[in-house]
Amino acid sequence: MRAGAAGRDGILVVDVGTSGVRSAVVRPDSTVEHIHHLPVLPTSPQPGLVEFDGTAMADAVIEVAGRVLEASGPLAAVGIANQRASTLLWDRGTGVPIGPGLGWQDLRTVGTCLELQGQGIRVAPNASATKVGALLDAADPDRTKAERGELAFGTVDTWVTWILSGGALHVTDATNAGVTGLTRDGRTWDPVILDALHIPESLLPSIVGSTGVIGAASVLPGSPSIAGLAGDQQASLIGQGCVRPGQAKATFGTGGMLDQCVGGAVAHDGSRGPAGTIPVITMRKGDAISWGVEAVMLSAGTCVEWLRDDLGVLESAAQSAEVAAGCEHTGDVWFVPALLGLGTPVWDFGARGTVLGLTRGSGRPELVRAVLEGVAHRGADLLEAAEADSGHRVEALRVDGGMSDNPVFVGALADACGRPVEIAPVVEATTLGAAYLAGMATGMWDGEDEVAAAWSPRAVIEPLATPSEREALRSRWLEARDRARATVPELSGLDF
Fold first, then answer.
1. Which DSSP string do the residues of 213-260 spell out, in sequence order?
2. Which of 233, 253, 280 is the last residue of a domain?
3. Cut 0.85: pTM above it
4. How many domains does the chain have?
């Protein structure tokens, strides 16, 4: 950090997740203070539908940011991190959302995605593209309002920036734009997909850099500059100091995401690579775009919640480590965490959660340990896939998310990966990443090298399994994973 570079000692971060809004201050030494959180839960009116209240989200953003500023005093700038691909439509004149927002998990447009495949267009139902089309079909079927510029579309970063700027800014950054399904290069919107879904370009925000001053958060005291924007996984990647090719982080929350930096060129063409990873933009600085690969696990912490809420095996998620430590090994019990199907590398939506190897001697500790180890082996799947598609080896895997606090899990992860696991200094590294992006724009941090140097894991877990032991475990794991596949054959036939 350059001494005296910023007149206000800290960055205000607004982090909008799937279940709530968090705000905090990140100081120049990367410490996090004055954390405030409000729940904003999505709803599911029918199976497969996930909706959220944009007005409630906006109110929560202003409230938690206001609380932080009241506690901290004026701050240098604002950094925003957010759940990706969730989609809103609102009236430009009133700023009022038109209908509910559609969460990234919403699957109402699966049929549309399959129809687009017939036109040679591949877009996944969790991306924003078909969600925008669905919202327009409901609110503006002939697109007259959108064509007249009366409506605005945005992902969550766009909505939060609009709210904080009092409607003066209608932007999205390249990391968020890149997962909408509406752009290929992170700079311009794709006319082919826009035409296919009848989306007027006048509806769309401008695509800006992930780091750089874009305007004032005029509704907040002191009107700090909005200077950093990133989707949650990219913010977590940067927050864990992963800014150079080969560096990677994994976030284990409800699901799991592993992101690896590749560099200035996209790792592979198409929607997915040979090993099942997705190309993503990790950051745009000025006009320079950095690329990476992303590997996806659909069920991670959800599996521990299943033990707690549905089986009653645990009183709390935190108790899983204590219970699992009650046995040295699972007794060859294997759990495949496919409660919602399998993502990278096999992408089988018809796979289902599977328990194998139960005997009369299998008890509560063995089952809980098997669940934690199953999630760990899925983490190793993601790592191996990322390395295969990127061509870069990961020397040490950096991790954050709720499960990073579980010592049994991170030990199993180190053994499954055969690499050291470095645990982030904060559970949610998205906060640090959003702050670094805003701080690089305002001089609090000089650039990527200083961000990389700021990485200081709270613990490093070395693998204890020998190479031969790991090979045997991975072989058994792959057998178990194969037996979980195609449980629902008609879903296994779907591919996006």
1. EEEE-TTSTT-PEEEEEEEHHHHHHHHTT--STT-EEEEESSSEEEEE
2. 233
3. yes
4. 2
